[in-house]
Each structure stands twice: as C-alpha cells, then as structure tokens.
Amino acid sequence: MSKFNTNLVHGIPGNENKTGAVNPPIYNSTTFAYPDTESVIRWDYARSGNPTREFLEKLVAQLENGDRGFAFSSGMAAIHAALSIFSPGDHLIIGDQIYGGTFRLFNQYFKRWNIEFTAVDTRNSAAVKAAIKPNTKAIYFEPFTNPLLHVTSVRKIVEIAQQNDLLVIVDNTFLTPYLQQPLNLGADIVIHSATKYLGGHSDVIAGVVVTKSKELSDKLYFSQNAIGSVLSPEDSNLIRRGIQTLSVRLDRQLLNTQKIVAFLQKRTDIKKINYPGIPGTSEHAIAKDECKNFGAVLSFEVQNIDVVKFVNNLKLFQLAVSLGAVESLAELPAKMSHAELSDTELLACGISPNLVRLAVGIEDADDLIADLDQALKLASNS
Ligand SMILES: *Cc1c(COP(=O)(O)O)cnc(C)c1O
C-alpha cells in the first residue's frame, strides 16, 4: 500500500478515466441516464452521488482511515449532517471551547429539536465523566481549540466513551489527517471544515465527515442525501487539488510557526504564548504523544503594546478570520472571531483583549518575522 504523501497526490485509483488525463474529471451533471428502465445504475441524481464528489469522499476516507467519507457545502453543513444522526431526548457532551458556529448550531438550533448539550473542559477527564447522564450518546470536541490551543487527549476521551458506550466525534480541522488521525486513536466520526487546511487557498467553503463503521456510514449517508447540503463537483475538485499539497504546505507552515514562536519567546513585550509545541505543559505532552506535530496556529498576549495598533500595522499578515491557507493571517479574537461574546464571557474562557491569533502561511519566515517586528515597534507603549 502506498504511504500518506503518495495517497495525498494520487488518491484512489479510478476507472472513470479513459482519456489518460492525470486528474479525475469534473462531472457537471445533475442526472445520469438509465440504459433502460430495468437497469441498476451506479449514479442517478447528483445530490445522491456524483463521481467527482465521490473521488474526494473516498480520498478523505482513506486519509483518515475510515469506512466512508462525505463532502458537504461547508464545515457547518458537515457538522449539521453528523449531528442529525441523533434523536430528540439524546444528550451530548461537548468541548467548552469548540468553534463558535458549532456552539451556535448546537445551542440555538439542535436544542430546539430537544437534543441536550453539556459543555465541559474536555481536558479534564473527571469533568467529562461527571457530565455523563443516562441519555448521553456522544462526546464532541476539538483536540486543539481556538484561539487558546487547549489540547485534549483523544485517547483519554475514547477510553471514557468506550466504558460508557458513547460515540466520539472529533473536529479535526486544526490538525488534518497529516498531523493526527483520530479514528486510529479510537474515535468514531471525524469532521473537517475543509475550508481551512484541506482546501488550503482561502477559495472554497467546504466540509467533510469520515465515519469509522458501516453502521455510522449508512446513517451519515442518509443525512447527507436527505438534507442535501452536498459539495458541488467544481468545489469537490478544488478540495481534491488542495489535498494534493496538504503535507508540503503544512511542512512549511510548521517550520514557519516554529521560527515565529522562537522570535516571540525572546521578546519582553510578549506576555504569554499559546502553542502546544512549547515544552513544559500538559498540552505539549499530549500533543507530542498523539500528533505528528503541533500545528500552524498560535496565539499570544502582548504587554506594553497597543494591540489594535499592532495588528493594524501588520503588512504581510492580513487582518482576517479563518486559517489553514497559504497566506498568513492575524486576528484579534476579542474583536473579531469571538466578538459575539460579552467581556465577562471572554474573561471566563480566558480570552484577553490583548490576545492575538496567528494562522501561519507558507511565506518566508524571515519576512513574516520582520513584519511582526516592525508592527510591534510601531505599537510599543514604552
Ligand atoms: C471554520 C471551522 C468550522 C466551520 O466550518 P465552515 O467551513 O466555516 O462552515 C468548524 N470547526 C472549526 C474548528 C473551524 O475552524
């Protein structure tokens, strides 16, 4: 069997291609002809299945080592479809620092359908166990959280789940299958906002789900086809193309991140850096044990720096939410990605107004560091 990087580039061998084209074709067809009324055909209608989307779905299933993959029109659509396997009366334990859109979908949408949620710090096994109720069906979390980079052990959550007959659902957006394969650690369902690293170029909104068992695959397929928020053939092809360079992009991003962290560590105007690659924390120990690397997102608190002036003066880092693409981005969580939280809520979850989050791209590290350096100088209060 080929190895990971080879699989990224070549995917699943298809027999669709009779032209010699090195890329799988984009089938822009919503419907597929029956040879005659008695025929059983593989494709009939493109919401139910499209060969271009299926190539991507098989590819992500292979990369995450799952039974089956499903591609959706956004990460949120993927999460919606995955959560739709539950029923009124079910209870889920969720990470207390999950993506804001996910929290909103759970608490403002699924709650109305009588699904209950308890948010806990999933790093704390005792808290997770204490939250289990007779109707608990699953634990849903992000192994690396945004923007504070809390790290939860997938193995520990799986252990608790298996003792209590619960499903484990992991949003693996921040790590990608290149850095962690949650199904191999015992999880049941993996979700991605493919908008981020899998796409990798800030030009497609997409989501994927990968299931571990045939039983879960059947449920997810039902959700996908019934709800219908499928990824278009064109966008499926863009995510496929993005995936081909996933590991090369990430290798550069990881190296750049390391260099930026080393630069920040030397400065007196940087108060605290949140990055699991820094030794000496439990986050580091877990990440070292369960992941291939520590990711390319970090956050830090500045001191004696006008934080707004700092980010406004960045030239190469663009001031924008999102992450995972070739270009470096900076944002102020308190004013941007987490703006809907009140000051007390921000404080409660540990997001200081002086916190800056970076999503590191593939540029030259020296240029990125020079940009941070000049903007810090301009924003200095001393
Ligand atoms: C962006 C993101 C999502 C939502 O995905 P969309 O593609 O924006 O719908 C979900 N989870 C995480 C961790 C994300 O970063």
Automatic annotation (TrEMBL):
Q: Which SUPFAM superfamilies match?
A: PLP-dependent transferases (SSF53383)
The cellular component terms of Gene Ontology attached to this UniProt record, alphabetical and capped at eight, are: cytoplasm
Which GO MF terms does the UniProt record name? cysteine-S-conjugate beta-lyase activity; pyridoxal phosphate binding
- Give the top-rank taxon of the lineage listed in the UniProt record for this protein: Bacteria
Q: Which UniProt keywords apply?
A: Amino-acid biosynthesis, Lyase, Methionine biosynthesis, Pyridoxal phosphate
BP GO terms, sorted: methionine biosynthetic process; transsulfuration
Q: Which CDD domains match?
A: CGS_like (cd00614)
Known PROSITE patterns for this protein? CYS_MET_METAB_PP
State the Pfam families in the record: Cys_Met_Meta_PP
Do the record's keywords include Mitochondrion?
A: no
Entry cofactors: pyridoxal 5'-phosphate
The EC number(s) given in the record are 4.4.1.13
The modified positions for N6-(pyridoxal phosphate)lysine read 196
Concerning its family, UniProt says: Belongs to the trans-sulfuration enzymes family.
The protein's name: cysteine-S-conjugate beta-lyase
